[in-house]
Amino acid sequence: MFQAVIKHAPFGVEFVRDGEVQVNFNGKGLMNMEHWRPKIEREPKEVKEGEEPVVEEEAGMGSFEDESTWWDESFGGNTDSKPRGPESVAMDVTFPGYEHVFGIPEHTGPMSLKQTRGGEGNYNDPYRLYNSDVFEYDMDSPMTLYGSIPFMQAHKKDSTVGVFWLNAAETWVDITKSKVSSNLLTLGIEGHADTHTHWFSEGGLLDVFVFLGPTPKDVTSAYGELTGYTQLPQQFAIGYHQCRWNYVTDEDVRDVDRKFDKFKIPYDVIWLDIEYTDGKKYFTWDPHTFPDPLGMEKQLDAHDRKLVAIIDPHIKNEGGYPIVDELKSKDLAVHNKNGDIYEGWCWPGSSYWIDCFNPAALTWWKSLFRYDKFVGTARNVFIWNDMNEPSVFNGPETTMPKDNLHHGNWEHRDLHNLNGLTLVNATYNALLARDKTEEKAGGVRPFVLTRSFFSGSQRMGAMWTGDNQANWEHLAASIPMILSLGVSGFPFAGADVGGFFGNPSKELLTRWYQAGAFYPFFRGHAHIDTRRREPYLAGSPYTEIITQALRLRYSLLPAWYTAFHEASVNGSPIVRPNYFVHPTDERGFAIDDQLYLGSTGLLAKPVTTEGAESVDVYLADHESYYDYFDFTVYTGKGKHSVPAKLDTIPLLMQGGHIIPRRERPRRSAGLMKWDPFTLV
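The structure corresponding to this sequence follows.
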């Protein structure tokens, strides 16, 4: 039975399940709402000789607080005008009896969130949620990254609860834990830990949802009902994606496509970064380097392959460019605080930003993707929305000023973390409209990748963890990051295989492909200044080992598609941490370096350390586990050493499952459509 017990003085709410308090609002009295207020200019009062100065606090005029940043604040050469004053909302949320909390991505630390008040092994700052374009981000940090999901779960043996803080303004979350010792006079009752969290946002309302479980699946399912379940993509999107900044010509793309076939390496999608455009003007092609995009796309289509092209929200401010001319004439761009079109700097130089909070802008954006408008695109072309935090090179913290104005005179500060979602939503619906006559009038499921996200972005497609680095630490961090996203409702997640910045060693590249084979979104990507690293360039034995990893992914596409389908109907993560699968196993609650693939019974432990020849895999039950490749049996709770030489992926099959596979090697997922199944 669920209950909410509301107290008036002092205000508080206890959320009770079966007679036990699970979540407590304002138990520490930290609830706060700062009201909007105009600035009142006070004239200093003249004090005559012999008179005592009047103390404002004694005169009922408030305390001597420092108001120097209440009405404007300067940072990095930009001044935020704060027209409504120092607005903010805050509240403390306590999880009595819960030691582990998960969620609030996107951050680089462990899946089980750390305390934020200092001390050994803890952070010294709160977790920050403020979508930002972060260059070469730090490891194991509460610093903000590209996306924000203000959804936290607390878990203990046999119980999971959650809280969703629905606020798109800049948000900080403090976490502390307290140990409650057992009473020596009460035999059999052990001590417990309480987790205390303090949520504070710069603007918005107190709009908080509580989920009382009691299982992890109950919580993620209810959260999915509220914000939307993840998209069920077309099968090609679950295959391998080949990308770099940049494939420089349409012939370059054709050559990469041919070489994948020559080396018998499967892939489904090749990607184009910004250099395909004519001078970084979106919805155009460079006439010199991409003179025949339709011919390129036709070659890809011969093997049922796709092309993804990047379209960012910044529109180049250049005369004679029809897109920007329409954007300005129809007044569809974001405005600055003075009500004029906001001009900033991004890849094209001087740019304007589409305001996807404006319904008229959505209608216009939808029209741009039609085949007669985006000339040179065919039905096998899909879209990548990058830089949508939004990234503004000359803006405060590399983003848009908070006092910019969106449609309806909403300040950007109130909507910032939603910005990326609105662009992806616009693009998703544009692709739906583009292809509405296809597939027996049922439409074609779009594929859109986003870098910036918020709760609800999962409905439209995939995300990736941004500009990582080619080192072992970033490879290791990718596993808990993807697991955290999965339990936070955005399971179609991945990381750049090989690392975006830098050149990986051949061993690191190989291990990253083996790990990437267990990312829901599986894409190799690299910076423009890195060496080319397509799998066929690695040389023997690395090319052959990488090919094995890719073929493993393709042979298991039936299992992957099943896991994606589950996520699309009940909100379960596609790849799952130990606590989600074994919610009573206390030893495994914080494990975040191994993962289960849906409910298929497949347990993978990617190798993330240099020179490793074995890994310890943790088993949380007494079921027998079978090595995927040689059927070695592992039984018994606890850690088991599993061989992991360079050509080996530690992958176990849990007893009691039937594993569906398709074993015939093919060039792409689409060509496997009529292949037989193998059941293990």
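DSSP finds twelve helices and 38 strands in the chain.
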